[in-house]
Structure formats: C-alpha cells, structure tokens
Write a structure and sequence with these properties.
The chain has 217 residues and is an alpha+beta fold. The protein has a single domain, classed as Jelly Rolls (Sandwich), CATH 2.60.120. Helix content is 17%, strand content 41%. The protein has two helices and 13 strands. A hairpin with a 2-residue loop joins strand 8 and strand 9. The longest helix is centred in the N-terminal third of the chain and has 18 residues. It is globular and about 55 Å long. The termini are far apart.
C-alpha cells in the first residue's frame, strides 16, 4: 500500500512539473480584464498547502484582494508548485473583498489526476449561495482512471457569475475534489465592478430633475 502511494505521488509530481509550463492551458482572457474597475488574481505556483495565510496570486498583474485556501489535512505542495492531497479530498476556497460593488466574476481552474467535484462549486455573497454552469476548456488524458499511478486527466474549467443585482463587494467561492489524489495546478479569478454611470447618463438624469423642478415651479 505504501509503495503504491509513493508511486502515485511520484507520478503526479512528474505530471505537475511538466504541466507547470502549461498551467493556464485552455484558460481564456475575459474582455474586461485590465479595464478600469476590474481586478485579477492568478495562481500558478502555490506555497501554502493547508489553512492560513493562504495563497495570494503569483501571476503578473495579480491583485492582493483575493486569497486561495486549501482546508483539508494531508495536503502538500509539490516541487512543481501544485497542491496535492493523497490522503483526503481537497477542499478549496477563494475569498475576495474589494471596495466596489461587483458585477461579474469569472473563475478558471486546472486540476490534474482526480477531477473536481463540479457540483460542489458555489459562490457565497451576503447570505446568497449561487451555483452556475460549468464550461470545460481543455482535457488531457494521463492514462487509466485513478488511483493507478500517473492516471486521471488534466482538466481546465470555467465558471461565471453575475452579481450585479446583489450590491456585494465581497464573496467566497468553494470547490472540492471528487476524491483523493487531486493536484491543483493553477487558477485565475477575474472580477468586474458595476460600471460607474457615464457623463451622458448623469447629464440625462440632471435634465430630468431640472425639468421636474421647472414643472413644479
């Protein structure tokens, strides 16, 4: 049993080290990334396997307003920078807090070996728990199904949420592995704030108010 576990860890370590160069394989760039009112965090090389202080984004341009945590015991950070857990089902959470009300959220995650439990993906804002549909961006087979050494898939997934009606400036996203032997390779989070009213809109509101005042006079 111990030999099999070591073989699995060794195989996934090798997979992780190869895939680190393609950690964002299949990920897309939302049209609003880099625009005023947007925030981005990208994780390619993790440093904390369990609990606090969590992982801030390490990709270029990452904001410090988002932190990724892994909450199940038994996890470790591989030499590739992936978070791997061969003892427990991994439990992940991303926490975001900003100054402005949020309009759109886009999460992208790449997992190796065991897949994520896609039904577990939820966003929590205020007292609301919000699910959403998943888009599969990329899939690569590593051989037979887990737990065979070097087995499983490399899968990139995307989820989007519209929070424009909630007037929320913070949220948490939770997602879990379907079983043990998941290696978290990378993730990105994009957030767009509710757009400020433009000059034309503000001018139009002013004219309406002025007209009402004149009518009342």
């Amino acid at each position: 049993m111990r030999l099999n576990a070591l073989l699995i860890v060794g195989a996934l370590s090798a997979v992780g080290s190869v895939s680190v160069f393609a950690g964002t394989n299949g990920f897309t760039v939302p049209a609003f990334r880099g625009q005023p009112g947007s925030a981005f965090a990208g994780w390619e090389s993790f440093t904390v396997a369990l609990g606090n202080p969590g992982n801030k984004g390490d990709l270029a341009g990452s904001s410090t307003v988002a932190t990724l945590f892994q909450k199940a015991p038994g996890a470790s950070v591989l030499g590739s920078g992936n978070i791997y857990n061969g003892a427990e089902k991994s439990l992940f959470e991303i926490r975001y807090s900003g100054a402005e009300s949020i309009a759109d959220v886009v999460l992208q995650v790449r997992a190796l070996g065991t897949e994520l439990n896609y039904d577990s993906v939820r966003l929590f804002a205020w007292t609301d728990s919000i699910g959403t549909s998943r888009t599969e961006l990329d899939r690569v087979s590593f051989g037979p199904p887990p737990p065979a050494p070097g087995s499983g898939f490399g899968v990139s997934s995307q989820w989007t949420w519209d929070l424009s009606s909630l007037n929320a400036n913070a949220f948490a996203i939770s997602f879990d592995s379907a079983d043990i032997n998941l290696s978290l390779d990378s993730a990105t989070l994009d957030v767009r704030a509710v757009p400020e009213p433009g000059p034309l809109v503000l001018g139009g509101v002013g004219l309406v108010v002025l007209g009402l005042l004149r009518r009342r006079a």
